Amino acid sequence: MIWNEHAECMDREQLLKLQNERLRNMVSRLYYNVPFYRKKFQEAGIDPGDITGIHQLKDLPTTTKQDLRDNYPFGLFAVPQSEIVRLHASSGTTGKPTVGGYTRADLRIWSEVVARSLYAAGVDKNDVVHVSYGYGLFTGGLGIHQGAQKIGATVIPASGGNTKKQLQIMHDFGSTVLACTPSYALYLADTMKELGMDPSELKLRRGIFGAEPWTEEMRREIEAKLHLKALDIYGLTEVIGPGVAMECEHQKGLHIFEDHFIPEIVDPNTLQPVPHGQVGELLFTTVTKEGMPLLRYRTRDLTTMTVEKCACGRTLARLNKFLGRSDDMLIIRGVNVFPSQIESVLLEMSETEPHYQLIVDRVNNLDILEIRVEVNEAFFSDEIRQMENLAKKIKANIESVLGISAKIKLVEPKTIERSEGKAKRVIDLRKLVD
Amino acid sequence: MLLKQLSVFLENKPGRITQVTKVLDEIGVNITAFNIADTSEFGILRMIVDNIDVALQALKAQGFSVRTTQVVGLVVPHQPGGMHQALEHVDKAGIEIEYMYAFAYNSKAAVIIKADDTQKLVEVLSGSGYHVLQEGELIQD
């Protein structure tokens, strides 16, 4: 099903014209309303009037997560605060979240792209959409909620947690669509099994899963265990939230809503486009967003893109599976975690040395983070109680910064591998890429 | 009147204790008493040795987290109630014991005690007529 046939099946030449026009408009808004971008343009010697179309994107400055941090919280907003009607945020390094500000028009665009996403998954007004993404600053819950409401579906704002209750509600309210992270979907399936519930007792038929990378193997497992068709949704707070790109029922890549978000696949070192079909870093330019429009935002996600028309009829470019990241960010239970966050927690504690290692694994379909910290003489105590208190203190400090729990393992000094002087910080044992 | 104890931090991994005893063997240090306190993740090996300075340097050189702690060595009568009576003195004085472990001292029974106030512990026990071990006493021929 296609929600907006005009936008999603547009002739590509016509789409290009629309993108060019929207980019010109965006560049002038950036130049005149955002001092950060004006400075960047001036430094690069680019006059907003020089920009005629998206073929020039490669010459324009990029935007990084660090730029957002440097301008925290509202420095990249392009409208006065009186025009902002909603704020969202994602977890960020050193305790500072990444902020997204939305105008009324931005919220309309967002619910439009989520509506398109849900339709692409075959969801319509007859469906009961059970949203188990977290509601709050995180864009997942409210993002899916607004889109589902727009198509007229019955929305259950279940939010995260309390798995048994969720299953009861799904059963009693007849949920037909489940929206959550793929690992939570598997966790739900396992909990059902424990409770002796059969998937045939539920009416689920579609799953809208995102906010973390997953494999084809996971897809097959979820589909088999929950008796539904599992579809991948992509998005990030900086760009808008969920609904930047979405898989259709053919499951042949994620359609990017290019009339709003212009994608580029570039070499992460040169920031120049890679030849068609090759792997590179995904960048987005949010041409229609008013609140916080971003130019060539570096997602750090590595992937490839396909431009051929899909069997579903959409002409939109498609993202293929994600192949990793061009930085060291980890996504653990849907939360963005940078090793530098953990390092700064350890540095702030006088008792510890910043020698650590992160072991990420997936046990019973839940991500587990173990942090190994080297014990040195300065904080080694002869008493078990004091050592355990130290581990508890590290755990509490990490939790308050990351917002997720971690297991702390104290290890002997100099046992954490140091490759060429630099410790191997992260061991990710999860299988996230096919 | 206090004894110096050597404590080594060990991860729960096969062969770790052997690596410590190997170092001590190589430098000819004798272990008089030892104890292992363990949790699910790590352990602390506590030892009374005959040459603590040499042992400390050697273990540090091998990358171990080592420290010394002052403890009390107490000789108790090897008979029913012997330990109990000694501990009653400790309780009465309001001293809290953090850990203790037993070892054989010649043909007598002896315990190592770590308390919140080790100095007071020595005073109480000596004052009650107990034999509190001194450093040189443990070095056997």
Task: Please supply descriptive tags for the structure shown above.
heterodimer, A: 434 residues, alpha/beta, Rossmann fold, GMP Synthetase, Chain A, domain 3, 2 domains, nine-stranded mixed β-sheet, four-stranded antiparallel β-sheet, 11 helices, 23 strands, 31% helix, B: 141 residues, alpha+beta, VC0802-like, seven-stranded antiparallel β-sheet, 7 strands, 30% helix
Explain what you see.
Chain A has 434 residues and is α/β, with parallel strands linked by helices. Chain A has helices at 5-8, 12-33, 35-44, 65-70, 104-120, 139-150, 163-173, 182-194, 216-226, 339-348, 384-402; strands at 84-90, 98-103, 128-131, 154-156, 177-180, 206-210, 229-236, 241-247, 254-256, 261-266, 280-286, 297-303, 305-306, 318-319, 324-325, 330-332, 335-337, 356-363, 366-374, 407-411, 418-419, 422-423, 426-428. Chain A has a nine-stranded mixed β-sheet with strand order 4-3-5-6-7-8-9-14-13. In chain A, β5, α8 and β6 (206-210) form a beta-alpha-beta unit. In chain A, α2 packs across α3 (35-44). Chain A is globular, with a radius of gyration of 23 Å. By secondary structure, chain B is of the alpha+beta class. Chain B folds into two domains: 3-69, VC0802-like (2-Layer Sandwich), CATH 3.30.2130.10; 70-138, VC0802-like (2-Layer Sandwich). Chain B is 30% helix and 39% strand. Chain B contains four helices and seven strands. In chain B, strands 1, 2, 3, 4, 5, 6 and 7 form a seven-stranded antiparallel β-sheet that branches. In chain B, a hairpin with a 3-residue loop joins β2 and β3 (42-49). The longest helix of chain B is centred in the N-terminal third of the chain and has 11 residues, at 16-26. The model of chain B has no long low-confidence stretch (mean pLDDT 91). Chain A binds chain B through residues 375-377, 380-384, 387-388, 391, 409-415, and chain B through 5, 7, 9-11, 37, 39, 41-42, 44, 46, 60, 63-67, 69, 98-99, 114.
